[in-house]
Amino acid sequence: MRGVSGENEHNNYLFHLGFMLGQPNPTGKEMKGNLYIFNQEIQGPELNLSDAGFEVLLGMDVIGKGSLAVEGNGTFSFSF
Prior knowledge:
single chain; mainly beta; two-stranded antiparallel sheet; 1 helix; 6 strands; globular
């Protein structure tokens, strides 16, 4: 992988992506909504960002399949 900090070796994976879009129950342990599966196989490197607060970084290959809206207050919505 090559970026602004130079070239580094990373594990590379093929995976499928699913989005759970809905609302959590009042307990916060369950979610009701719809599961959307992105059927295209995605290739991505392992990121060593344990404190980043996210598990995967999505690119335009995924975002371009839906509609992403980012609001000024830090909220967002994504739909297919």
